[in-house]
Amino acid sequence: MAGARTPDEMRRILSLMVGELNASHLGVNPPAGATTPSTGRLGLRWDPAEYERTGRLRVAEIIPLGPAAVAGGMRVGDYLLEVDGRPVGPQVNLDELLAYKIGRRLALRVATSPRAAPRKWPFVR
User: Fold this and answer.
1) Which residues pair with 124 in a beta bridge?
2) Residue 73 CA to chain centroid, in angstroms?
3) H or E element that contains 118
4) Residue 93 has pLDDT above 70, yes or no
5) What CA dihedral angle connects 88, 94, 100 and 104, to 10 degrees?
6) CA 6 to CA 125: how far, in whole Å?
7) Phi and psi at residue 80, to the nearest 5°
8) How does strand 79-83 pair with strand 105-111?
C-alpha cells in the first residue's frame, strides 16, 4: 500500500485485498461526496506469480459478464501487451492506461505468449 500514489490506487489495492477474502458484503468505497471512479476495468484477473517473476500481465481468469467476457476473444493464458497502442510492462501502471476510459472503446493487443504474434480487439467498458 505504500506504493499507492493516489487515493484511487489505494482503494483499488484495498479492494483487491478484500476480494481475496471472498467476503461478498465487504468493500472499499470513496468518501461521501467524492466523484465517481474514473478508471476503467477489463474484467480480468492476472497471474500474480507470472507478474512477480517476469513483470508481464498474463490472464488467470476472465470474470463472467465482465467487459472482456462480454466482448469475447480473450482467453485464459493470454498476455496483455498494449492498451490503446501503449505498451504494458513492469514499469507501466495499468490503472493509468485505463484512466477516464469508462464507457469508451479500447483497443487491446494480446498474445498467447510474450513472443507470439499479437491479436487485437476493441473492448468497451
Assistant:
1) 105
2) 16
3) none
4) yes
5) 60
6) 22
7) -85, 120
8) antiparallel
Percent of the chain, pLDDT > 70? 85
Residue 19 in grid coordinates: 476480494
For the question of whether the overall pTM of this predicted structure is more than 0.85, the answer is no
Q: Report how far residue 62's alpha carbon sits from residue 108's, in angstroms, rounded to the nearest whole number.
A: 15
How far apart CA 56 and CA 114 sit, in angstroms, is: 8
Q: Which of 87, 80, 83, 89 is nearest to 104 (CA)?
A: 83
The conformation of residue 39, written as its DSSP 8-state character, comes to B
Spatial distance between the Cα atoms of 81 and 76, rounded to a whole number of angstroms: 14
- pLDDT tens track for 47-73: 999 988 998 999 999 998 888 888 888
pLDDT for the residue 34: 66
For the chain, where are the alpha helices, taking DSSP H only?
Answer: 7-20, 48-54, 67-71, 94-97
Chain region(s) in the chain for CATH 2.30.42.10: 40-124
For residues 26 and 19, the answer to whether their CB atoms sit within 8 Å is no
Please state which CATH number belongs to domain 40-124: 2.30.42.10
Say if CB 112 and CB 78 are below 8 A apart.
yes
